[in-house]
Structure formats: structure tokens, C-alpha cells
Amino acid sequence: QVQLVESGGGLVQAGGSLRLSCAASGRTFSRDHMGWFRQTPGKEREFVAAIAWIGGSTRYADSVKGRFTISRDDAKNTVYLQMNSLKPEDTAVYYCATASRSRSWPTTDQYQYNYWGQGTQVTVSS
Questions:
Q1: What is the DSSP string of 4-68?
Q2: Confidence of residue 79 (pLDDT cuts 50, 70, 90)
Q3: Tens of pLDDT along 4-35?
Q4: Considering only CA atoms, which of 82, 107, 100, 103 is closest in space to residue 27?
Q5: Of 18, 110, 17, 36, nearest to 78 (Cα)?
Q6: Does residue 44 have a pLDDT over 90?
Q7: How far apart are CA 74 and CA 71, in angstroms?
């Protein structure tokens, strides 16, 4: 059974940092693109960051560029999202997901992804 489990969310003051982790099990994801998305109530799930399955290519939403960093450790089947200089508007449930390497890069569309975690809440207070 394929499973993605996010962790690292929580409450932080504006300007602070958090590091999200997403541990995958049930299959090896080293040949998949990995991504992070976020969602707030009443809004569509939005793209945050993605990392390609090979070569280390990354892509970020304009709203987080320069503040967030996505990385992966294929030996641990884990993807990370380092979030710095957090703002209240970053408050959301954050989801990790995987997309087959056959999907066109960059994988910024949620419909390109086939496995999803349950999400972790990030709350940034002003």
C-alpha cells in the first residue's frame, strides 16, 4: 500500500521557519517527480514547489520563491520543504505528492500527481 506521511507542521510567528518532511512507503519514489501543494478553506489546492526525479531541477510558485526550498533524499524516500521568512498568508494545509517521471516537467498541476499525503497544518501568526 502506497503511503505518504507529512510531518513538521505547526504554529510559528511571522518571520519564522519550519521544515516539512514527507516520508513515502509502499514503493520507491526515486524515479518520481515530487511536489508540495497547499490549500486553505474554500480555495483550490495551489502549487508550492516541485523537484524533478533526476537532475535536481526545482520549480517554485512566485509567492514562495526565495523563501522556500524543496529537496529530496531518495535513500530515505523522503522529500522536504524548508520554509523561511514565513508570512501569515502561508497559513494552509500542506500536502506532498508524487508524479510519474513520464509526466511533463515541470509538474505544477495537481492533476499530474497520483499519490497524495494526508496533509499537515501550517499556521503563521502575525
A1: EEEE--EEEETT--EEEEEEEESS--TTEEEEEEEE-TTS--EEEEEE-SSTT-EEE-TTTTTTE
A2: very high
A3: 999 999 999 999 999 999 999 988 888 999 99
A4: 100
A5: 36
A6: yes
A7: 10
